[in-house]
Amino acid sequence: MEFRDLKKQYQALKQEIEHQISNVISSSQFISGFQVGELEEKLAEYVGVKHCITCGNGTDAITLALMAWEIGPGDVVFVPDFTFFSSGECPAYEGAIPIFVDVEEDTYNMDPKKLEKAIIKVINEGKYKAKAVITVDLFGLPANYDAIQPICEKYKLLLLEDGAQGFGGSLHGQLACSFGDISTTSFFPAKPLGCYGDGGAIFTDNDEWASLIRSYGVHGKSGEDKYNNIRIGMNSRLDTIQAAILLPKLNAFKEYELRDINKIANMYTELLSGLGMGLPIINGEYVSSWAQYTIQLPENVNRAEVQQKMSEKSIPTMVYYMKPMHRQEAFMGTESSKADCPVTVQLCNRVLSLPIHPYMKKEDVNFVANSLKQILTVYK
Ligand SMILES: Cc1ncc(COP(=O)(O)O)c(C=O)c1O
Predict the structure, then answer these.
(1) Could you report the per-residue pLDDT of 218-269, keeping only the tens digit for each?
(2) 99 vs 173: CA distance, rounded Å
(3) Which of 223, 220, 214 is nearest to 182 (CA)?
(4) Ligand 1 pocket check: which of 64, 135, 186, 242 to mutate, most ligand atoms within 8 Å of Cβ?
(5) How far is CA 187 from each of CA 6, 55, 56, 132, 335, rounded to the nearest angstrom?
(6) Ligand 1 atom closest to 87 (CA)
(7) Ligand 1: distance of its center to the CA of 69 in Å?
(8) Residue 152: which H helix or E strand, with range?
(9) Largest CB tally within 10 Å, which of 53, 207, 268, 377?
């Protein structure tokens, strides 16, 4: 069994994907071929924003957004403590200070009350300038934008939605990657919408930021002229082959993958409820795109032992994430390491992600759930 079975997806879409790849190779338009523009248009339309700019990966996407906002030394960016490293790495790379905010136990996403507390603390201390909030749509579930957007407005902070894991999720019918002043995503192969290598995208309704990001992503070019460089930028583009691969994958994602992965997640939730573990319950206004199905094991359970026993049954499991961001060695001795995030610390000790993907068979979901149930009986 695969944790996320990209081979099965390839089998389902093989003909179209190979046709697309072969078209790119015959045209030899490997960089900025027409498929890149076509994909950007389709992504912007699907998400419901004016501009989509593709780039090299989800990390560059966050960095490009921060560059457009000129975020740098002396600026504070609020980031959830429970996330992949990029969300905090990018502001730090720009010289800003990521301040890590604890998350909610049931959604795994940034706790709006704790966010406001952290903002007030930075403002009252007056040492640094509170500039932006990076929300993460963790494991496919949009963050609590009903609460976080008004907080950003109240304190005049820019909102960057890191939708690397959230593409396809929604809140009140509004799609992920449209909640931020700028939003970003990743097309890393195992993401809800993944390509066959690295890839990413930036979404915004703001014309000025979109044009700045297009410039920063191609060596600070002026307009369309790559050899007239008016600012220091970087080289971060989505290859034409990756765009061409994403076109049929986006169709499948919209037509059935998002629906099917939700069925798998619902099955897990039915099979695993009532056993004393924390399950990812999705409130009715939200739709998750299930980048991960992550449970919280009961406190008395030895997670490594459970993983070993699952692995003996050929069931792969993963731990996302082992370490709170504020305890990562890279932040040691900095302002960022001072965060107080007990929920994240607890989650890091207890979470376990189970195999999930849109092509998973019902028998396999049953097998994973029953195996886990059986393994956990030892701890009763
Ligand atoms: C929450 C989050 N942000 C950012 C990224 C970075 O994306 P990429 O690997 O495409 O740079 C990831 C990728 O795992 C992620 O999960």
Answers:
(1) 999 999 899 999 999 999 999 999 999 999 999 999 999 999 999 999 999 9
(2) 30
(3) 214
(4) 186
(5) 13, 10, 9, 24, 31
(6) 3
(7) 20
(8) helix 145-154
(9) 53
